[in-house]
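Sample intake sheet
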Amino acid sequence: MSKSNTPPIITYDEKISICDIMKNSSSQIIQKLESQIPLRFQQYSDLYSTYLHTLDDIFGSCYLSEKEFFDKINIDQNILKTFQTLAQLSIQPCLDQIDMYAKYRQEITQMQISVLKTYDNFLHTMMESYGKALSQFYT
């Protein structure tokens, strides 16, 4: 445990509150989870890149195996050009959907952040009201 992660030493004459204990405890956990975010993103990125690379290798191996076979058949170049055009026509909607999904995820993330900020503001307002209400009992 590093020096910054060690809990503070509390003397018995020091006044503490249950709210301090709960806040400090939850803050330590949240900070630890936040520190893991870059690592988790990197792990996911590495896994996803390896997955995509594996798929690319599968098609590359298939290409090498089949190239010799298809070259021997001597398919008419016009048929191959038509097939290439058809392949491009089928690929483009997939590429467009990837872009649309990325934009969708960006919008969803922004909306979620906005909702959390609104909720945070609401909680602050409620806690202020709660604090004022509690202070009326002890004044």
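Comment: The chain has two helices and no strands. Helices lie at 18-73, 77-137.
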